Sequence to fold (447 residues):
Amino acid sequence: MVSAFTSYFMNTYAVVIDSDMIRNTLQTNVDESLDLFSLKLLIYIFFLGLIPSYYVYKIPLKNSSFKEALINKIKTIFISIIIILILLFSFSKFYTSFFREHKPLRYYTNPSYWIYSIGNYISKTLNSGPIVVKKTGLDAHIEQQSSEQPRLLIMVVGEASRADHFSLNGYDKETNPLLKQENIINFSNVSSCGTSTAHSVPCMFSIYDRDDYSYKKGIRKENVLDVLKHSKEVEILWRDNNSNSKGVAVRVPFEDYRTDKTNSKCDSVECRDEGMLVGLDEYITKHKNRNIIIVLHQMGNHGPAYYKRYPKAFEKFTPVCQTNQLEKCDKESISNAYDNAILYTDNFLSKTIHLLKKHNNSHQTAMIYMSDHGESLGENGLYLHGLPYMMAPDAQTHIGTVAWFEENKQLTQNPKEYSQDNLFHTLLGLFNVKTEVYKKEMDMFNE
Fold:
């Protein structure tokens, strides 16, 4: 039954069922899961899962002695080894070069790889004892002149926004019409820490870089929000319209905006990202004499149902793919639906900037937008995201990133190479936090 499920997703979206994908599955919510539901999935489950399972169930079991069973097993193993050896020796030249050149094929072996991945996930995740979170940056303090205004930063965590679909980066469709009117800094060469939300979001806020980060290390050490909290001079708020904060906001104020109980911008399809902006004016005014960081975690371009990710008014690029079975749509309609969602993010970021402008008299204001990972849209038969980093295409790791500051006077293009490894130190630098864990050379704005 499990192999029927994995076969569907591997064949339909060309994803790999590795330990990170299993983590994504366990951390997702019902709404995201429903986006993946289809008639084709039911057909896979029926013909590849239920019918074979029923056949196996109905086979009568023969009771045999231990000796008879052992002899039968040995016969089976011996015959299998003979067949394997004959094949290997007959086509040794082909297999030797083929598997050397196509090592990633092992990731697509069903069911052996998902079984291995479950073991790998358990090894990476389960702990032998209670989790002790190591304190980080306890020496954090802010050197701020009494005449200086406090600082206000809105950090927007995007979802599945690839850099090459931003018109700010030269894309032929105008997906950033509002941002280009603002005096933003566009970072055109930023790479993600991983290819999935469950990996990238905690990694981007952690002190570890991509090569050093792991789930177990991440949950055992405080992140940059904790360091800001240690300064005792920064108010912190996380609002989430995605699945959750992936463990980043467990020790700071957290608000769930996936429900109409908190999000006033919900329609018949889903709750919209712009609902997270409602009420922020009052929150900022309440803390007008304090430094503030507000993190907004978007639904953004979450696939495969890109056509659901934006209100109808933003359907500028047509025709659009109106199904979650992306393989049924042509590349143009998939891209159009995805680009309309980028267009809605452009609107959301523009509204965020205008909200910040209203508080320029009380705060030094700024915004950073950084997507968690990119997205494949059918190139080379690949869809969505989540491939192992070593084999992931640029589309899944090259992410959209922009920043806005009230004092910036012109649109600036910054082609310098950065990654999500820089975010930890950049956020500390923006609040002028002094601590031994801050590395100036990793701060994207140290110049």
DSSP finds 14 helices and 13 strands in the chain. Residues 317 and 336 are 5 Å apart (CA to CA).
